């Protein structure tokens, strides 16, 4: 089968002409329709890049009412498709009207394959260029944005990160494991004036207590057995940049005191050294633990907490972010498929439903691993529920009192459908059973971009 980018839809009610056109344009993946309803069904199914349509369609093939109505539908449903209307010999008025409504071009019958094919090829080229432009624009956005989300609370978190990145304040990121604390810390660094300097991360829980001090503060040659050469610590390496202390709740007591001293005086001494080295770093730290509890239990210094927590940002777990699981899943599928050289992979409808129903205790990291495995396991180009290793979602789980929470339900539906179809407005409007303008209105009303 030719690829989707080369699909041509021919809307023609005369069977003989339909046949002739199909033969003439067999370079493309041709799909056919003979009236408005079947044309719309084909558009939903194939998303044709180019459409040729006769303006006179049944039930009234002698006037243009049905054709113009179809054109209006297409412009709303598939604005990226290029429509060429086929008009009668002396029907300039309707040709111009069609262009005014959003048709790409018109062609006056009689049918001459060579002439029409020139028009069609040009329409394909324009369509390809526009798609490529949109793809490049998306890529840039993705690279800058780093953090994928459409959830309202998470977007608020991102705005906070954006605001505090311009300041010198220390930031404490709170969130379950795998929620993206390190990605956010890096985002904060990239948005700050320190972006050109180093971002140095250290996981306080992953390094044995007796090594953590030398990792953080560095050491002089001969400071201890095995210290064969002078080695700067992470704090020193991060000079002028950002130091990210992950799992700060696991920092042992004596090191808490030493870190506090550093934050107050902004100088360090390497282990075994006598020299005070001034250091300028922005400190960002993170933990999945409840620091207030640790303070109450005497396991975390309150004075250190207030030094570190000038700004506290709480990151919601994935299960509380509306639509994000599906959105991230689509994006991971794209990434892993291309990493594995499998060009087009997608999630089946049931797979998306299973992803939405799962609670993701390991958050984005768990989802990322799950999709990575699935892209390897899937036999064809579609990822099915068994490839994910998840339970299929139950149909109709949960009922709402829609009258009471109608607004909320509408908002949820829009957010989740947008995520499910990966932001494709045409598909989202179709799934929600509303026109695109209505969808835009809803998005405006709920403050969705
Ligand atoms: N919103 C997001 N968009 C894209 N990728 C994400 C997002 N959030 C997290 N990730 C990816 O998920 C993985 C886990 O994220 P990260 O390491 O930042 O989590 P964490 O909260 O620091 O976890 P831990 O507390 O276990 O260290 C990473 O591979 C990261 O790239």
From TrEMBL:
Domain Sigma-54 factor interaction: 147-376
Keyword Transferase: no
PTM annotation (4-aspartylphosphate): residues: 54
Molecular function GO terms recorded: ATP binding; sequence-specific DNA binding
BP GO annotations: phosphorelay signal transduction system; regulation of DNA-templated transcription
Keywords: ATP-binding, DNA-binding, Nucleotide-binding, Phosphoprotein, Transcription, Transcription regulation
Name this polypeptide is given: Acetoacetate metabolism regulatory protein
Source organism of the structure: Methyloversatilis universalis (strain ATCC BAA-1314 / DSM 25237 / JCM 13912 / CCUG 52030 / FAM5)
Species classification: Bacteria, Pseudomonadati, Pseudomonadota, Betaproteobacteria, Nitrosomonadales
